[in-house]
Amino acid sequence: MQQETTVDHVELDETRPKWRQVYAVILERIADGTYPPNSRIPSVLALSEEFGMSTVTGQKVMRALRADGSVRTEVGMGSYVNETPATEQ
After folding, report:
1. CA 81 to CA 33: how far, in whole Å?
2. What is 4-88's CATH number, 1.10.10.10, 3.10.20.340, 3.30.565.10, 3.40.50.2000?
3. Which are the contacts of 11, defined by CB distance < 8 A and separation ≥ 6?
4. Low-confidence ranges of the chain (pLDDT < 70)
5. Is the dihedral of CA 77, 82, 86, 88 positive or negative?
6. Where are the domains of the chain?
7. Nearest alpha carbon to residue 51 among 80, 77, 19, 29
8. Exposed site from 25, 42, 80, 83, fewest CB < 10 Å?
């Protein structure tokens, strides 16, 4: 039987890596304008709490978002959606 976790109206499939699922949700939020260009996205801690994952997993999500060009991180300021996110390139 497949287990699912519901977090803030997002169902996470327990059989797939959480970081990939959360990464996909963040990309979707960027694409649909929930996080518009140059807006600050939630911190690793906030994402970890929202999705019920460890901060290590949250850091992995942020690394993937930076690596694909979707977000940039400004030390001491937070992470922001790039002007032209990877989802539009």
Report:
1. 10
2. 1.10.10.10
3. 4, 5
4. 1-11, 85-89
5. positive
6. 4-88
7. 19
8. 83
